[in-house]
Design a protein that fits this description.
By secondary structure, the chain is of the alpha/beta class. Helices cover 40% and strands 20% of the residues. It has a five-stranded parallel sheet, with helices on both faces. Strands 6-7-8-9 form a four-stranded antiparallel sheet, with helices on one face. A three-stranded antiparallel sheet has the order 10-12-11. α6 crosses α7. It is globular, with a radius of gyration of 18 Å.
Amino acid sequence: MSLVMIIEDEEPLAMLLSYNLEKEGYEVATVANGLNAVSEVERLMPSVILLDWMLPEVSGIEICKMIRSKADIKNIPIIMLTAKGQEEDKIRGLGAGADDYVTKPFSVPELMARVKTNMRRAPLFEEKDKIIVFDDITMDLSERKVFRNGHQLHLSPTEFRLLKMLIKEPGKVFSREILLKSVWGENIFVESRTVDVHIRRLRKSLNQYGPDYIRTVRANGYSIDKNSSSDTTEEKEDEL
């Protein structure tokens, strides 16, 4: 049985989420205090984390960053729960390493669908023992590791899936809509702007150890290409 961890200090909401998750067949663990969150994640190793932004002592943003910094738990999908609905808040949450973002009040059925989608993404069982190589970038799908020029990159699960999609078909331009459907799922309602945020983070990680191979095609989308133009910039993403 898959375990979902709820990191939420509002007891009524935690109880509501627990009830609905258990009804869907998941095992549930709840944590009410940010101070204990990371140690509990390491102890229980949940399949998906529902993380509240506003927590006592330590914020959800800081917890997300700490999870992403630890090798043994960094690949666990994180869905951020928050009352902050402004675009800059969403970008900040995704920038901290969250894979998904749900604004309160939210639809419980939609949240359950998001949990299910993230649950499917986590293991990548269908692609065991496969290696993908593109120039100086190597993806180990079995170990869920990415290397560039011998340096290991620390990507979030969403960044890993985006890179895998791009690198399997070099030169092909993927629209934001196609990337959303393929990486986030058909029935999940995510703003197309979310793709830009994750591409920006992926590009930053890759470019630490080599040239920029992610090409932004204005009004179309993204591709990975060794002949990527040197003037590809984050500002271009805003023009898509």
